[in-house]
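@channel sequence for tomorrow's demo:
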Amino acid sequence: MANNSSKAVVSFIVGAAVGVAVGYLLNTDKRDELVEKLRFQADKLKDKFKKRKEHFEDALENELA
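structure tokens (generated this afternoon):
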């Protein structure tokens, strides 16, 4: 029982710390730069997943043929 309580407390503290950090970063003068970097990274990740999906579809098509 105590283990679940300690996990909840740690989760709350980590969540609060992340929230404070994100709030701070989004309220600084470099917000636009940060948002642009995040968009760039999201686009890279999206492209990576798209390539893996295409590779998987090709491999599946070759297996079924």
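heads up for whoever presents: The chain has a mean pLDDT of 85.
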